[in-house]
Amino acid sequence: MRKRSVLALVIALVVPVGLRAQDGPLSLSFAAAVSRAAGAAPVLTLAGLQTEEARARVREARAPLLPGFSATGSWVNQTLNKDAFGVQFPNLPGFPSGRRIGPFDLFDARLRVTQTLFDYAGIMRVRVARSQLASVQADSGLAAESAVQAAALAYLRALRARAIVAARLADSALAAELVRLAQAQLDAEVGTAIDVTRARTQLVTAVGGLVLAKNLEARTRIDLARVMGLEPDTPLALTDTLAAALPLAELPATRDSLIALALEHRPDLVAEQARGFAARRAGSAISAERLPRVDLSANYGANGLSFGDAIATRLIALQVTIPILDGFRRESRQAQQQAGVRASDVRMAELRRQVAADVDAARLDLSSAEQQQAIAVDGLQLAQQELDQSRERFKAGVAGNIEVINAQLSFVRARDADIDARFGAAVARVALARAVGVARLLH
Questions:
Q1: Taking a C-beta distance cutoff of 8 angstroms, is the pair 350, 413 a contact?
Q2: How far is 419 from 416, CA to CA, in rounded Å?
Q3: Dihedral (C-alpha) 59, 62, 64, 67: value to the nearest 10 degrees?
Q4: CA–CA separation, 440 vs 44, rounded Å?
Q5: pTM of the predicted model, to two decimals?
């Protein structure tokens, strides 16, 4: 009874998850996952909104340099105290005596136009806003690189989990075969009951490993869907395998070429350069505030004591403003900007060193992973030979199944090591592309 229940569980677990999921799973290759993450990840949507916000700040900074136009209309009914003007007006015949004038009405309708003719500080503020936009756009590139790296790693983890499930399925099938062989030998009175018990114990262990592997695979698919901005329950059909040489990226082989490429493409370096440039321009804009500013304003309209007797009036004014002293606020702001520029220079130097360190570390990891992968292949081949030979000896009755079980455990470890080595090499290639700043070119 116990044997049938265990075998039934094995059969249930052998049925692929995709066959029990929703119809029409999303077919997804590694290249498609990377491409989707580079264009539709939630973090990129937020980065795009920040870019739009920075563009709006550029338009806001440009607004004071553009013409202004307004229209006003007013009606006022008021009284005045003539003595409040500081002049003693005589009482004229025919006019009310006393200090109060009015009440009287005043109508006014007017069009106003203003235009800045020269404001170098305003021009520099526009340039500062544009530099800040470039910095935000570079930050968007950094977000894209991070999103691609997250999607690539999630895809590779899902492939690794699927490979582990396949390995546990093979382990379960081998353990079930060992149970049948041990039972057949016991029935033929050439085997022992302890061999059957050992085989069943191995089968139960394999089934437990398969349950854990299935759970891990389901969780990695959830993580992959979320990284790409999909619903967690979206069924995915991964079209690539961990056995393939994933991922691929056209990168130079030498260290100097990789570092030169990284210094050119690393988005965090580009973003810091843009921030430093914006800080320098902001300092120039503050210095430009000491220069004269020239504004032109004009208005045209009609006003009068009543609507019927209103007459046309106009005003044209040219105003020159020369800043002289503002309590040394400009000097304080200038000092802040200069400190910010120096801090940016320090960060740039540190980022350059970090770029070189990241490239060196990624190259070391990739070299080590490739060597481990070659070793794992040899180990898997030897473990397979050991398992085949022990099975033949058990079938021939010259050895007990303990030898097969030990060989099977060695084969399981070798196969897991091979999966981990392939996964480690793929992760190292992703890390190298990310260190260079070209993760978006992975395929």
A1: no
A2: 5
A3: -90
A4: 13
A5: 0.79
